[in-house]
Amino acid sequence: MEPVSFATSERINIALVGGGDFAADILDKTVLSSSREDIKARIVAVVDPEEDTPGKAKAREQGRLVFSDYRALFQAEHDIGLIIVLDPDMSLFEEIRLAKPPHIRILAYHTFKLFWDSLNYQIELLQQRNREIETILDGIQDSILVLNPDMCILEANQAFLDSMGYTRGEVINHKCYQVLQDRNYKCEGHMLCPVDEVLRSGQAVQRVVPRVNRQGSVVYIEVSLYPIVETDGSVNRLVEISRDVTRLAREDEEINRRLEELLEERTRELQKRNMEIRHQDKMASLGKLSAAVVHEINNPLAGILNLLLLIKRITREGPVDEKTTAQFTRYVEMMEQETRRISSITTNLLAFSRESQGEFGQLDLNKLLEDVLFLNSNMLRLSEVRVNRDYAEDLPLISADGEQLKQVFMNLITNAVEAMEGSKVKELNISTTYGEHTVRVSVGDTGSGIPKNRQSQLFEPFFSTKNRGRGVGLGLSVAYGIVQSHCGTIYVDSEEDKGARFSVTLPRTQPTASYI
User: Fold this and answer.
1) In this structure, is the dihedral angle defined by the CA atoms of residues 86, 91, 93 and 96, taken in order, positive or negative?
2) Alpha helices (H) in 223-245, listed in sequence order
């Protein structure tokens, strides 16, 4: 027999001769493959002399050709490339073989039945294995989904259906965002889609995501999404294993809420304690001022009293002439000056002793430093300390709490004076400078200095370099806290026997108006 060739069309068209149950079974099991582009063969016709056979009925249902005589298959318009004989009678096979055109091939019943039975056996094994896998999956408590790259759900186990309240028909072949998020569009914005992430990276993803169940309630699901990757690196399927962690998430939320409440309560306590420490330090500084200020006030008071007694004595001696009246006027002016001085001292002391409410406003640091020096003027004079000022004339205003900064510089000046008690040269050097965004105040002394190994502890609470009984170690700690609350910095530059210089750098404008 001369060699034959398949039909020249892109696909091989196949015809079945025999329209019994065997033909119907073949058509049922191959119907899906007929529409696939990658399969280059399709069954196009069924031949049987009887009209009401199962095979012919199935062919008509599927829109295939049906004939009563196999010779109709030889017509060129049908482009048949292969005839499969489904009748075990070999005489029919021989009849068709001898009558067919050379380009059409033919397959006998027994040969095809061998392949078909083998295929059915494998199908049965696969179905049995699928049933086993389904049983295993349905017995797993975690929810399992199988999706394709188009986000269509291909399979779901019973745990998923039970937990979300859906039936299989409401899930299979539906988009995941339709089922899981109750929406008709992909997850976007703040809710990054785990499927997109796996498709983009090719790596497994684990995350807790919110989902909407059948009742419309939001539940929290811990999702682990794994890709099934083909040999070419593309993702063919995605397997999602998930569990409901709503109870744990709610418990975490409750724990976080309680922690936030505890944190807020603790913060309030710390703020209250911080204010108490600042007040204690301020009162300690006020106590140090008291001795010097008492002397400062007593001097003008004694002068005023003496002048009053003098006026009283003169008026008792007789009538007051014009010359005496002029003396009285001069005495009154002197008493007015001394009274104003006392008033200024007490006003500044009251301002310093008041509780600060943390009020930020525009502040001239040069003027504030002069106010602090005025409060300490008598202490500086009694300690024989010379004050050297080097103020920037065009110093810009800053946003700050004046009363709090007074406390900072009161501490620095007081510490500087005490550090120079045993020094031969006693000079307090105060300077102000500024940059584009900051202003700096430096307070230096000619005292004994601070050892390097103790400088790192200077701003710790209750640490003091003074002799026992001279301080409790809160002044610099409070100053540090105030400067920090102003978004500034404070540091020290010192060497033993060469004095110390404290520099406070503050922003010209505050990022926030709050303070600690």
Assistant:
1) negative
2) none
Q: What is the rounded CA–CA span in Å between residue 19 and residue 371?
A: 114
- Residue 262 counted as domain residue: no
Between CA 190 and CA 200 the distance in angstroms is: 17
Q: What is the pLDDT of residue 321?
A: 80
Number of domains observed in the structure of the chain:
3
CATH number at residue 330: 3.30.565.10
Q: 352-369 burial string, b = 16+ CB within 10 Å, else e?
A: beeebeeebeebebbebb
The predicted structure's pLDDT at residue 274? 67
Residue 112, number of CB atoms within 10 A of its CB:
16
CA distance 198 to 239: 11
- For the stretch 321-325, contacts whose Cβ atoms lie closer than 8 Å and that sit 24 or more positions apart, written own/partner, are none
Same domain, 222 and 174: yes
Q: Is residue 53 part of a domain?
A: yes
- CA–CA distance, 100 with 37 (Å, rounded to integer): 28
Query: Among the three residues 74, 90, 121, which one is the final residue of a domain in this structure?
Result: 121
Would you say 480 and 459 are in contact if contact means Cβ atoms under 8 Å apart? yes
Judge if 303 and 376 occupy the same domain.
yes
* HSE-CB for 169 with a 13 A CA cutoff: 0
SS3 348: helix
Residue numbers in the chain where pLDDT is lower than 50: 1-8, 190, 462-463, 468-473, 513-516
pLDDT of residue 513: 45
Q: What is the 3-state secondary structure (H, E, C) of 171-208?
A: CCCCEHHHHHCCCCCCCCCCCCCHHHHHHHHCCCEEEE
For residue 407, give both structure tokens: 């406390």
- 6 exposure class (CB count in 10 Å sphere: 0-12, 13-18, 19+): middle
Q: What is the CATH number of the domain that holds 240?
A: 3.30.450.20
Instruction: Establish if 261 belongs to a structural domain.
Output: no
Whole-number Å distance between alpha carbons of 408 and 122:
89
Question: The domain containing residue 361 runs over which residues?
Answer: 272-507
pTM of the model: 0.38
Is 256 inside any structural domain?
A: no
User: Does residue 103 share a domain with residue 181?
Assistant: no
